[in-house]
């Protein structure tokens, strides 16, 4: 039995952190579903930038969009929704079998809206309506400005993948926004079953402190942060406020481990997959990491539930001069800026391709 199947059997969902039209057209995504226990998929501007830049598979759709007067963001969202609705349909069987717990795909609102609450809400509603799929999350960043948009989207019945979370405090703020949206639905007499995941980025922590701490602490910060957050997640699941909404028909917001590809070439290529094995969570993996884990990964002990070892490790980082709270704020800000950069590059790629296709017509 492949390690991916073992991890799935242990209670963790394995999602692919990638989407390209070639993955769909060549049957690769379907193969991952059937053979590697993949039960969902996430995307972001960087992924689409690379997909469109490196493949001719989008050229005919771009040409068609141009003929219809589309350009820029409008053209991109046409392309993205084409891919993600196809992917959502591939995961429909999983979604149905799990009564909606699993089988999700994710589409991000424009990163330019990360600090604009009103426009984020409008974009989330519009994209969800256009997709018209019950298993499509709209990704909204868990920034200060994004939190009200998360609450409003949940209240409006839009499933949300809260992204760009780094610390326990980020996670708790995101879970509170989800819960407020659910409670408002209950008060309004609406169905409280609106799904959500909270995506915590892991490997970027280790990249941020590389070369700044003793070698014995290399590649340990992200996992320690994850241990602290996992304890908070389990406490939320047992929180009477959460349990009240479960009793009224809601489903818990699940914790999702993101940015789980190993960045350090000296470390194991499945470092974060093995360390973050935990029931009732999601791990969204880069394609290379997924294949590596299927090839030579192994499922060991599941994550500890008490975070004692994690707190001891975090104390060592504090003694080494790392301010965790300040670094979390910086990482979230840098993450938002990175997605804006990728978004700008993505639109430039579409513009360049559009011009080339017009010349060739």
Question: Mind sketching the topology for me?
Answer:
Elements lengths: L2 H7 L2 E5 L4 H5 L2 H8 L2 E4 L3 H10 L4 H9 L4 H19 L1 H6 L7 E4 L8 H15 L4 E6 L4 H10 L4 E6 L2 H20 L8 E6 L1 H7 L11 H17 L2 H8 L6 E5 L12 H5 L5 E5 L1 H10 L11 H12 L4 H37 L1
Parallel strand pairs: 1-2, 1-8, 3-4, 4-5, 5-6, 6-7, 7-8
Write the element-wise H/E pattern from the N-terminal end onward. Answer: HEHHEHHHHEHEHEHEHHHEHEHHH
Instruction: Give average pLDDT, whole number.
Output: 95
Tell me the overall shape.
Answer: globular
> SS-based structural class?
alpha/beta
- The largest beta-sheet arranges its strands as 2-1-8-7-6-5-4-3
Structural Rg: 20 Å
Query: Low-confidence parts lasting 5 or more residues at pLDDT below 50?
Result: none
How much of the residues is beta strand, in percent? 5-15%
> In which range does the helix fraction lie?
55-70%
Please give the count of helices: 17
* Quaternary structure annotation: single chain
Q: Give the biggest sheet.
A: 8 strands, parallel
E-strand count: 8
For the termini, the CA-CA separation is 51 Å
